[in-house]
Amino acid sequence: MTQTFALLGGLLPLLLGFVQEPGKQAATQVDFARDIQPILVKECIGCHGPRQQRSGLRLDRRGDAFRGGYSGPPIHPGNSDASPLIARLEGKTLGLRMPNTGLPLEDEQIQLIRDWIDQGAVWPEEGMSVEAAVLPVGEAAPQPTHWAFRRVTKPEPPWVRDRAWPRNPIDAFVLSRLEAEGIEPSPEADKAVLLRRVSLDLTGLPPSPRQVRRFLRDNRPDAYQRMVEGLLASPHFGEKWAMHWLDQSRYADSDGYEKDQVRPYAWRYRHWVIDAFNQDMPFDRFAVEQLAGDLLPGAGVEERTATGFHRNTLTNREGGVDIEQFRFEQVVDRTNTVATVWLGLTMGCAQCHDHKYDPITQKDYYSFFAFFNSADEADIDAPLDGELGPYWNTRAEFEARRRALLEENQVFELMPPWEAQMREAAESPGKWTDWDHAFDALQKYLDNGYGILLKEPSARSAKETKGLVDHFVKNYHRVISKPRAEELKYRELFKVLQQLDREFPGLTQAQTIAERAEPRVSHVHIRGQYNRTGMEVEPAIPAFLGSPDQPPVSNRLQLARWIASPENPLTARVAVNRVWQELFGTGLVKTSADFGARGEEPTHPELLDWLAGDFIERGWSVKSLLQRIVTSATYRQSSRARPEIDSKDPENRLLARQRRLRLPAELIRDGALQAAGLLDTRVGGPSVRPALPQGLTELSYANSVQWETSQGRDLYRRGLYVHFQRTVPHPFLMNFDTPDKSVTVCRRERSTTPLQALNLLNDPAFDEAARGLAARILTESKGEPVERIAYAFRLCLARDPSPSELARLGQYFEEERAGLDPEAASSRFPIPLPGVDPIEAGAWTNLASVLLNLNEFITRE
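The structure assignment produced for this chain is given below.
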């Protein structure tokens, strides 16, 4: 019935134009409030309150009946027999029936509407809304009853029979549910397993053999607590938790779409996220800076860099696209992303019509959209430590050499008339097709190109001037003859300018947003179309999340502060649920991206609210939240399968044990490089490009993606830093379920496919890792093969092998050593080690590859 009200409103002007037949009168006088509005409430409005329509037309208020762009005669008595509304309600119009989903209205309901039309379609007094008509005078509209929309209150932990098992309040909630189901929790995992688990969960890296030895020998009661504190303080903590956040913020290193242009400084936002997690920035501040850091009083570089969250939208630079259309699409993406990431709402469902399940009207959607509609993209200088000195020391020489090149090639002479003609082409589209083409290129390839063009040269910043000059040199050929272009040789000049940029140190930049001085007017967009606007709207939070004492929320900073406030019932619940999801594989609410009516209810609602309340009380500290969870008895349980409870809890939602989780792609790669002794552990900085399979970039549009494989240490950086080209992502990442980064993803899938096995066996990075691991075995471990196999086991799995594992791998090693010929051995281990037989080195390389392919290696127990 969600479409019924819109159709009622849309047909009303047609309906009211009919004249009632003389003498036709219903037997009973119909009262709108008593007879008609209850139908609208039940069939069209439900408990959500009146639904403001796309056009602004409302059937429940007389004063609004002809608003929203409709025009028509005053209200006159109608003729229900001639009414298109009645025809559609009764299904007499071919192919059209209202409601278009669900059951049709009952005959009695249709007859009441007929009678109301025949009697003149009379409303109550002006301004009377559905609430006023249906509720008793003085009674407030009911508040939403859905569990996620109620304000967070921190419950007391429940009483449990087994007082010895719980280590903190989390365990009381879990054990209470288990005791109610007659299930006992699992015993604690082995110390080695527990160490590898928590190390992978908190830093994304397995423990070293030295860390394992130290922990296994530490018999102090607080040994585990000390180890957790050390992991939380590790600089790799920020890398691990940034990885999950970047999925939600749909981070990538390129624009997407056909051109998929590289974003050379997208990584600066990633750098900020890593630092924020390492510093344990309070989550409420983490939210405010990303949503509206540019509007904070005294906002500096870091606060503005945080707004790169909004710049991870796709950018369409295809020729001929409508700039305003794709600006609208970007604002839609920002609206949907903010709603999903921070509120756990599928607000995007209301872009074209009222949400079918949650109390989000289309007006609510575009009121939320209005918060982001006046934010423009802006790139700023955001230098890291050590950049400013080299930059200023060489800047004068750089500018002198650049200016000499531009003067020598007549750029300063030819640009002013080009600019004037471009402005005229913008004002007179269709007058010159070549200049139209050139102006289109300016808009697509130079961010805010038209805005820069309109400024006086003296008013442009140095960055804007450089951008426009470079664009001119690269694109002047579009408006001159081919002989003239060949004479000027601007193609060669552009390459020289690029080389000059590479030779001199520049400043890191950040992609940010900035509020316009004059805000854009926002409207409801009819059926979600960018070029069909309805009623005007002001920025506002969804009505159902407000409260009578709610201060006005009218700009993006106020929105950010409301989102990160205890008064908002969603943010804390959503955040702690996603942290739980990363540690247990599934959140307390399985649908971590949807806390609405279609989402799954929490398995442990009191625990979710306790975690959310505790999160707020502890200053929104993510590290404190993680410390609470990973030191609980619930987290420390063994992950061994328990057939006796499979029938009761096949998905382990009651948490009677831990879960074995296949590691994300990035962590599999990191683990292999670390085992091989190759991992570069530098934190932060630009993206890197590991080798791609041959021919992969040819799949990009017009072979436009240029992938220059990184060199030296950059080849061995963590998977978090691998350059993500949206149209040609690294296949290893995609094979192991890394999201495509087009839209926000709040929970990664975990698949098992043959391609994954082929990747681990044949990927060049894993071949190199196997050789590196073999080299470590041969150089760091002495003695018999069994001793070396045990050392390799500790490097890869953080434990000693069982006797059967040791025997089987020893047999495999002997078979490989006996079966390899010198040529095959050389191909497996091409760089000889002094004093090591090449065949033995090849055999150890094959054994190392086996270890790196074990299910246990790519799994967190």
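Interim note for the steering committee: The chain is about 45% helix and 5% strand. The radius of gyration is 32 Å.
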